[in-house]
TrEMBL record:
<dbReference type="InterPro" id="IPR003789">
    <property type="entry name" value="Asn/Gln_tRNA_amidoTrase-B-like"/>
</dbReference>
<dbReference type="GO" id="GO:0006412">
    <property type="term" value="P:translation"/>
</dbReference>
<keyword id="KW-0648">Protein biosynthesis</keyword>
<dbReference type="InterPro" id="IPR042114">
    <property type="entry name" value="GatB_C_1"/>
</dbReference>
<dbReference type="InterPro" id="IPR006075">
    <property type="entry name" value="Asn/Gln-tRNA_Trfase_suB/E_cat"/>
</dbReference>
<comment type="subunit">
    <text>Heterotrimer of A, B and C subunits.</text>
</comment>
<dbReference type="InterPro" id="IPR017959">
    <property type="entry name" value="Asn/Gln-tRNA_amidoTrfase_suB/E"/>
</dbReference>
<comment type="function">
    <text>Allows the formation of correctly charged Asn-tRNA(Asn) or Gln-tRNA(Gln) through the transamidation of misacylated Asp-tRNA(Asn) or Glu-tRNA(Gln) in organisms which lack either or both of asparaginyl-tRNA or glutaminyl-tRNA synthetases. The reaction takes place in the presence of glutamine and ATP through an activated phospho-Asp-tRNA(Asn) or phospho-Glu-tRNA(Gln).</text>
</comment>
<dbReference type="GO" id="GO:0050566">
    <property type="term" value="F:asparaginyl-tRNA synthase (glutamine-hydrolyzing) activity"/>
</dbReference>
<keyword id="KW-0547">Nucleotide-binding</keyword>
<dbReference type="InterPro" id="IPR004413">
    <property type="entry name" value="GatB"/>
</dbReference>
<dbReference type="Pfam" id="PF02637">
    <property type="entry name" value="GatB_Yqey"/>
</dbReference>
<keyword id="KW-0067">ATP-binding</keyword>
<protein>
    <recommendedName>
        <fullName>Aspartyl/glutamyl-tRNA(Asn/Gln) amidotransferase subunit B</fullName>
        <ecNumber>6.3.5.-</ecNumber>
    </recommendedName>
</protein>
<dbReference type="GO" id="GO:0050567">
    <property type="term" value="F:glutaminyl-tRNA synthase (glutamine-hydrolyzing) activity"/>
</dbReference>
<dbReference type="InterPro" id="IPR017958">
    <property type="entry name" value="Gln-tRNA_amidoTrfase_suB_CS"/>
</dbReference>
<feature type="domain" description="Asn/Gln amidotransferase">
    <location>
        <begin position="327"/>
        <end position="473"/>
    </location>
</feature>
């Protein structure tokens, strides 16, 4: 029997506001435990929450960017449950009247495009954090994160594979970062993902029993957890056993999911409108005001890059996945109008360094000015490609390529007389390879070019070397 997965994601995005959602405490990450707290976010008796308007602005922004319907009136609700890091004994969230409903995010997997529907986007406050002592059976409570503003984005169960789920999560992260409302850092917890997953026979319209997966703080973990859970559920069904509706944690070290608790239903939380907060009325003028601040979004930018710069779709997809990288690319092309050469170097050398350090382009010392200088030196034949690649790590760290080339004497050797002497020497030292070339094995010329480049420490102009070698070998 063939099965298919049915996957929906619940994503929590921590917003880039300076203060919390209902008080003026700082949202800065990494502060000493319990240093960003006050009576409001600690849930002290007699305190009242006051809504941070910036949170609503950000929520409207995301709703517009995902084609969602913004409700003219939305209401905060109390979600009641007990947990040690939830000081009030309830979380202020939204339930029956969220900020926005509907909408979609378009993904592409294996060349096929698909729209993933959204159920809702709503605002809520974050809970605190438990820190477990590794030496004793003790846990400490840090309430710095309590009250930090979140947007919860709930998708329809439209995904049918772990690959689609990861593509959706990456696209949503890209949109959030383009809007500059969330930094998307999964490792620090500012973007968190829970997955609801079930399996069913292919062709069936009936949903299977869903399981919620938690503890996934990277795209890789989301992929691995879903892959494991699909296999686990299919194995249960084939053995004639039932899939239990529950919440499971992903054990990263073992690559498996484990039962955590029975799955809660909405009624378990006893939602009711928060009496301390008035309903939010969102006017058309407010929406229009936010709409004017929207940047060009990833999909639109990708299509423009393909048309305007004649980039391959794959290059455009990668470069526009980050707003900062796309802006860096355009700054380079403006100063050096050879878009494919710029793209090639970004896709190889630049991304290699960024991935190695886990950074965004604006977090590095690499500037468009220095990067363009390097490409111009290469394009004008002042330096060879091997030399350009060799010095790039220094340019990436902020060095001026022009100065490096001058100080280290790395200018490309194009003097034909000097190069011909070196070529002649290489040919005389390798008579067997010369004979192979003259017998028709023309690709042997690559060996000779390599020897000349080694002899000149990468400074020889490969184009000139090729011409000289061909002339000498054809004599």
């Amino acid at each position: 029997m063939d099965f298919e997965a049915v996957i929906g994601l619940e994503v929590h995005a921590q917003l880039l506001t300076k203060s919390k959602i209902f008080c003026t405490c700082s949202t800065e990450f990494g502060a000493a435990p319990n240093s960003h707290v006050c009576p409001v976010c600690c849930g002290m008796p007699g305190t009242l929450p006051v809504l941070n308007k910036r949170v609503v602005d950000f929520a409207i922004k995301l709703a517009l960017a995902t084609n969602a319907r913004i409700n003219p009136v939305s209401v905060f609700a109390r979600k009641n449950y007990f947990y040690p890091d939830l000081p009030k004994g309830y979380q202020i969230s939204q339930y029956e009247l969220p900020l926005a409903e509907g909408g979609y995010i378009e993904i592409e997997v294996n060349g096929s495009k698909k729209k993933i529907g959204l159920v809702r986007i709503h605002m809520e406050e974050d809970a605190g954090k438990l820190i477990h002592d590794e030496t004793r059976p003790v846990s400490y409570v840090d309430l710095n994160r309590t009250g930090v503003p979140l947007l919860e984005i709930v998708s329809e169960p439209d995904m049918r594979s772990p690959e689609e789920a990861v593509a959706y999560l990456k696209k949503l992260r890209s949109i959030l970062r383009y809007l500059e409302i969330c930094d998307g850092n999964m490792e620090e917890g500012s973007l968190r993902c829970d997955a609801n997953i079930s399996v069913r026979p292919k062709g069936s319209d009936t949903f299977g029993t869903k399981v919620e997966l938690k503890n996934m703080n990277s795209f890789k973990h989301v992929q691995k957890a879903l892959e494991y859970e699909i296999k686990r559920q299919i194995a249960l069904i084939l053995d004639g056993k039932e899939v239990v509706q529950e919440t499971r944690l992903f054990d990263v070290s073992r690559g498996i999911t484990q039962s955590m608790r029975g799955k809660e239903e909405a009624h378990d939380y006893r939602y009711f409108p928060d009496p301390d907060l008035v309903p939010i009325e969102i006017t058309e003028s407010w929406i229009e005001e936010i709409a004017e601040t929207l940047p060009e979004l990833p999909d639109a930018k990708k299509e423009r890059f393909i048309k305007e710069y004649n980039l391959p779709e794959y290059d455009a997809e990668i470069i526009t996945s980050s707003r900062k990288l796309a802006e860096f690319y355009e700054a380079c092309v403006k100063a050096f109008p050879k878009p494919k050469l710029v793209s090639n170097w970004i896709m190889t050398e630049v991304l290699r360094e960024l991935n190695k350090e886990g950074k965004e382009i604006d977090e590095t010392a690499l500037t468009p000015e220095n990067f363009v200088k390097l490409l111009k030196l290469l394009d004008e034949g002042v330096i060879s490609s091997p030399v350009a690649k060799k010095i790039f790590p220094e340019v990436y760290k902020g060095a001026d390529p022009q100065k490096i080339v001058e100080e280290k004497g790395l200018k490309q050797e194009s003097d034909e007389a000097a190069l011909e002497a070196i070529c002649q020497k290489i040919l005389e030292a390798n008579p067997k390879e010369v004979e192979k070339y003259r017998q028709g094995k023309k690709n042997v010329i690559g060996f000779f070019v390599g020897q000349v480049m080694r002899e000149t420490k990468g400074k020889a102009n490969p184009k000139v070397v090729n011409q000289i070698l061909t002339r000498l070998l054809e004599q």
